[in-house]
Amino acid sequence: MRLVALAAVLATLACAAQDGPARPSPLEGGSEFQGAEIRAMQADAFGNPGMLWVDRGAGLWRSPRGARELSCASCHGADGASMKGVSVRYPSYVASLGGVVDLEQRINACVTGNQGAPALAWESQELLSLSAFVSSRSRGMPIVPDPSRDMDAAYARGRAIYFQRQGQLNLACTNCHDASWGKRLLSEPISQGHPADWPAYRLEWQAMGSLERRLRACYLGVRAEMPPYGSPDLVALEAYLARRATGLVSNAPGVRR
Amino acid sequence: MILGKVQVPASVKAGEPFEVRILVQHPMETGFRRDADGHAIALHILDRISCTLGGKEVFRVELGSGMSANPYVAFFAIAAQSAELAVEWGDDRGDTGRATALVNVVPA
Hints:
The complex is a heterodimer. By secondary structure, chain A is mostly helical. Helices cover 41% and strands 7% of the residues of chain A. Chain A has a single domain, classed as Cytochrome Bc1 Complex, Chain D, domain 2. Chain A has ten helices and seven strands. In chain A, the strands form three sheets. A three-stranded mixed beta sheet of chain A has the order 6-5-7. In chain A, strands 1-2 form a two-stranded antiparallel ribbon. Chain B is mainly beta. In chain B, the strands form three sheets. In chain B, strands 5-4-7-8 form a four-stranded antiparallel beta sheet, with no helix packed on it. In chain B, strands 1-3-6 form a three-stranded antiparallel beta sheet, with no helix packed on it. In chain B, strands 2-9 form a two-stranded parallel sheet.
């Protein structure tokens, strides 16, 4: 009897490991968990403060940088139309970089490799503005994660982190964002933890922030050690979240409490 | 150069109030905060926004450290004829910025 039960558990585990991510139902992107004013602010193309970063990013897109005096527009076109549909498939496996990178890392690879300029610092105004600009080109498009087999290792690593209890509060991502979404944590509703609207303007920060910053804030929330920006753990977690959010429409730059 | 923008309706009726919306990118540091290393973060405040319509001042505001970052300001104005609306802003470090919009007045 015990053996049968054990076999059943093992079979379930094996299944879970091979299947796609467990997804909340119905899938809700995040602004659904915000108040009416926040949703209105996000939908308002003028009043959304994240649009200031998009505007600044549009300027940076066209300004040359680095030893080769190249701007983003030199290769990708002045209006950034070629970036439509790009942010919704990141993190992605990039063969020339030999690994899985998120959008900020991809932009920085272009800055250092093609423009010959020093890398932009994480959470700097320049990098946030460029990532906000690139993400905004995909506004209204569904998340379509990179289906490449080269993503599998990152996905599996991200999945393991997602279900790993950690920190002084001993909580895994899943304990809040699968088991308790829609409930309240003090005054705040708990979201399903989707990345679709990021990078986003967070009122608590009074600034734009990357998805990595948001993930680090969750690490801080459960009093766990925050992985450094750009660490493989954070990118892997982003890769897992992207597959979990497949089909959700991106409204980047989002607005969050 | 401080980035910001102004929005007015595409057309307004003569003599009827219309909304002017202003959004400026600024950190609005209160001077009371400390960074991760415990060092004080210096005061840095966008302290004035003014607006002219056809060269005549129609709105002015002085902001302080109680205002949130990236200030959003909206007010109503009345125009008799089409004119350029110019908004200027400046902070306590001497940086300034400017944006304009054309107020297109149609007969009421």
